[in-house]
Amino acid sequence: MKIEGSTFVVTGGTGGIGGATAKMLVGLGASVALFDVVPPETGDKFASEVEASGSGKAKALYHKVDITDSDAVRDAVARVVDTLGNLKGVVHCAGVAIKRPWTNDVAESIPNFKKMLDINVTGTFIVNAHIADAINKPLNHPDGTDKHGPFWTTDEERGVIVNFASAAANPYARVLSYGPGKTAVIGITKAMSDFLGPSGIRVCSISPSIVVSAMTANFSPYFSNDLKQHATFPRVPLTADQVTPTIKYIIENVALNGIDIPVDGGWRLVSAKPGNGGGADPRELAPGLE
């Protein structure tokens, strides 16, 4: 997919990875629509900064959108098509990681599990669905109504969707709720790639390790220590700019479809246990049980 001259939606567009992605795409000549839940004045200011970082041809617009609201996502995507045109895909970065104090009780995670399932999993399906339908609308509904046109296929590359899973998609003990949700994101990615393949839309996902962002700002030394012990290289948290080249690679490489790409420095997640000498479980150093 050619980036220059295309339009992409970036969800979580004012966040760490989302913001870096938006600046990368604008710098390469794409227009971007930033979907997030920050106040409009905050989002508009950031969109202006993103646009100013480009060559002057590409545009950046902010839309306050709750990705769990299907109607809101559909309407926002329609506005993007009307205002920026040439919609070619989405980089779906929006998500949450909710923590609770560490205890041995499992049921205490149920409320967080439900909320993360709604945002991280259902939100991914909603965003993927409405982006794909907007790209396919002229062919799915050729008479401009809700009536479905005949089934069609194409060999033309028409769009690309990049989802974000996580290194925690191979769950271990600390991610009781968050990890399984990110496993589901990989499942959605594979299912969407199969369903959308006939219409020329590719779908891939990225699984980063710990990325420095507002969401990880209060993380404890637990993660740094775990990276030092169980990553290969680099054994430190990543910056967003170390993730965006993989997004560019997926968008531009037509041969990539239905895969999840780890960007994790070879981090191998394990369930930390007390040392041979006993003592506290190292997981208690984590900022919370996700």
Protein architecture, described:
By secondary structure, the protein is an alpha/beta fold. The protein has one domain (about 5-285): Rossmann fold, CATH 3.40.50.720. It is about 35% helix and about 15% strand. It has 7 helices and 7 strands; from the N terminus they run βαβαβαβαβαβααβ. A 7-stranded parallel β-sheet has the order 3-2-1-4-5-6-7, sandwiched between helices. α3 (about 70-85) crosses α4 and α4 packs parallel to α5. The longest helix has about 30 residues, at about 110-140. It is globular, with a radius of gyration of 20 Å. The model has no long low-confidence stretch (mean pLDDT about 90). Keywords: Oxidoreductase. One of its GO terms (cellular component) is mitochondrion. GO terms for molecular function: 2,4-dienoyl-CoA reductase (NADPH) activity. This is NAD(P)-binding protein.
CATH class call: Alpha Beta
Number of domains: 1
The largest pleated sheet is described as: 7 strands, parallel
Structural class: alpha/beta
Helix proportion: 25-40%
CATH architecture label name: 3-Layer(aba) Sandwich
What is the tally of helical segments?
Answer: 7
What characteristic shape results from the CA principal axes?
globular
Q: Order the strands across the largest sheet as they lie in space.
A: 3-2-1-4-5-6-7
> How many beta-strand runs?
7
Beta-strand percent range? 5-15%
> Could you state the order of secondary-structure elements as H and E?
EHEHEHEHEHEHHE
Look at the structure and name the CATH superfamily.
NAD(P)-binding Rossmann-like Domain
- In the predicted model, the low-confidence regions spanning at least 5 consecutive residues are none
Distance N to C terminus: 36 Å
